[in-house]
Design brief:
single chain; about 425 residues; alpha/beta; Rossmann fold; 2 domains; eight-stranded mixed beta sheet; five-stranded parallel beta sheet; 13 strands; about 40% helix; about 15% strand
Length: about 425
């Protein structure tokens, strides 16, 4: 009647922001009803309902705990998930026995209690409880508990979305996105897909030297057809680990979309692709805002001038406010050191943003221009170029993956000294 999923019984400390490794897959469209005993727990559940990973879930909160839940479901169907707060051991067990008599088949139950006891946990499991969380709980505890009901532990690494957006047009955000995706696929050996969301003027096809007959437009204009097999046919293979969902880059139609236009595409990609890099165009609309807020990690690309500083600050503040339980957005400075151009120093930029850039990419017109014209990545032109290493470092920060193993030799210390002198 009530399904069970594995849960750690150790006390859970309050978490203000998840670490890089703490990837929680979003919950599907489910109904969740919570019956709380304390105002503190109700506030945590309410805050969890505002988290982007529960954006599709329909959450309702009531006070009264176990007794209120039993009374409510005597005459009403139970939702997909019930969250119950209970104070004492006997209250939990007796209440669950009574709830079982009115609970619909397939309903999953999460219990929030204050007793950290393995015998109690075993009794809860025997009664079919899906999850037991030790109070006091934070919003992220509730988010994790609900979301983990619908994703097995083995699937947690699947479907990490990284959104890359420029603080201003022309700052090279697409170039950074494509090179970072290349590093994720080649150097970190992580199966990845680049989704070029600039349907009218996207450059991913040019940068990867691909000209597929189909792409993301076929999916966004046919939402009813979107499934894994359909998207597989639209993907263009760039390398063994990297695929492209290309933009048509044509002007034969206008590309006006609703806020949820890309949801089915992203949801389907999450089920099969460990890493999805979104090349988000520099525009502000319902769907671009939704794509950024819903992403697991965000990289803002900015040039060192005043307009970029203002825009980066605005994007940064909005995303932090909209994603209180996520890691703050990351940003990098690009095209730094253009001759005769006044620039804001990286230290001043960081002071205004209240965060340091994860990389400062120098202005290198020759190698970047050659790569763009040849349909190549920087790493393909020069594997030892300093920006190649920067793109790898950005890829590692965004994915949470550590240093790649490098082959060492007796000459390694000498080579490192020579590189340092350069």
């Amino acid at each position: 009647m009530i399904t069970y999923s594995r849960q750690n019984t150790e006390p859970q400390p309050e978490i203000t922001a998840p670490s890089t490794e703490d990837h929680i897959a979003p919950a599907p469209r489910v109904s969740v009803q919570a019956f709380c005993e304390t105002v503190e727990t109700a506030a945590a559940v309410q805050s969890a309902g505002e988290d982007r990973r529960l954006g599709k879930a329909h959450l309702k909160i009531q006070m009264g705990g176990m007794a209120a839940a039993i009374e409510a479901y005597r005459s009403a169907p139970t939702p997909n998930v019930i969250i119950l707060e209970a104070e004492g051991r006997n209250d939990i067990l007796v209440g669950l026995d009574q709830l079982a008599a009115v609970c619909d088949a397939g309903t999953r139950v999460i219990v929030i209690g204050r007793i950290n006891d393995v015998m109690l946990y075993r009794e809860l499991v025997r009664r079919g409880v899906s999850d037991y969380v030790i109070a006091p709980v934070s919003a992220i505890d509730v988010v994790r508990s609900v979301c983990n009901l619908f994703s097995s532990p083995e699937a947690k690494a699947v479907g990490r979305i990284i959104a890359v957006v420029g603080a201003k047009g022309g700052v090279g955000a697409s170039t950074v996105a494509h090179n970072v995706a290349w590093a994720i696929a080649r150097d970190l050996s992580l199966d990845s897909v680049v989704a070029d969301l600039d349907l009218a003027f996207g450059t991913a096809g040019l940068d990867y030297n691909q000209d597929p007959p189909q792409g993301i437009a076929d999916a966004v204009f046919s939402p009813d057809r979107v499934d894994t097999a359909f998207l597989d046919r639209l993907l263009s293979k760039c390398t063994d680990h990297l695929s492209l969902l290309a933009a048509p880059a044509t002007l034969d139609r206008v590309y006006d979309f609703g806020a949820e236009a890309f949801d089915s595409i992203f949801d389907t990609l999450r089920t099969t692709m460990p890493c999805i890099v979104l090349d988000v165009p520099h525009q502000w609309s319902g769907w671009t805002k939704r794509a950024l807020i819903a992403a697991d990690d965000i990289l803002i690309v900015a040039a060192p001038d005043l307009a970029n500083l203002r825009n980066t600050k605005n994007i940064f503040d909005l995303l932090k406010a909209s994603r209180p339980n996520d890691r703050a957005p990351l940003y990098c400075l690009n095209q730094v050191g253009i001759p005769k151009r006044p620039e804001i120093p990286a230290a001043e930029f960081a002071k205004a943003i209240e965060n340091h850039p994860i990389a400062t990419i120098p202005f290198e017109p020759q190698i970047f221009g050659a790569a763009a014209n040849n349909g190549q990545m920087i790493a393909e032109i020069s594997a030892t170029h300093r920006t190649t290493e920067m793109f790898l470092q950005i890829a590692q920060r965004l994915t949470g993956r550590g240093e790649t193993k490098k082959k060492s030799s007796l000459l390694s210390p000498l080579i490192e000294k020579l590189r340092a002198k350069k």
